[in-house]
Design goal:
The protein is an alpha+beta fold. The chain has 3 helices and 8 strands. It starts with a strand and ends with a strand. This is Secondary thiamine-phosphate synthase enzyme.
């Protein structure tokens, strides 16, 4: 069994849903050495998240942002955690809903994503800054 791991610092992005599949693949080229395996991508932040979804039509990413903003509104007077701005607590809630990692099978040296699937960075803050990922892959 082979095990590989790499840290990846993503550039700052505006609030929204951003495809990062190519960045993940480029950060860990050793994936190509694995015939069969698993790749886990983990984000080291509590106000951004990761998910896998539609990678072709950009309106899907816009609709995701619209939905989550409706589902978890800013400026809710019931929030106690608001020291870092009105987008902070909603960002934590959105990140909890979507999750901090994705797991993808590796098949013949490639991520076994479906035809229309991509890895999203879900940036929930207006000014979230750089985001750090830990990418781990293992297999044979």
């Amino acid at each position: 069994m082979k095990i590989f791991q790499q840290m990846l610092q993503l550039r700052e992005r505006k609030r929204g849903f951003h495809l990062i599949t190519a960045e993940v693949v480029n950060a860990l080229p050793q994936i190509h050495e694995l015939k069969t395996g698993i790749c886990q991508v983990f984000i080291q932040h509590t106000s951004a998240s990761l998910t896998i979804n539609e990678n072709a039509d950009p309106t899907v990413r816009q609709d995701f942002e619209m939905y989550f903003n409706k589902a978890v509104p800013e400026n809710d007077p019931d929030y106690l955690h608001d020291d870092e701005g009105s987008d902070d607590m909603p960002a934590h809630l959105k990140a909890a809903m979507l999750g901090s990692s994705v797991t993808i099978p590796i098949r013949n040296g490639r991520l076994a994503l479906g035809t229309w699937q991509g890895i999203y960075l879900c940036e929930h803050r207006n000014h979230g800054g750089y985001r750090t990922l830990v990418i781990s892959a293992w297999g044979e």
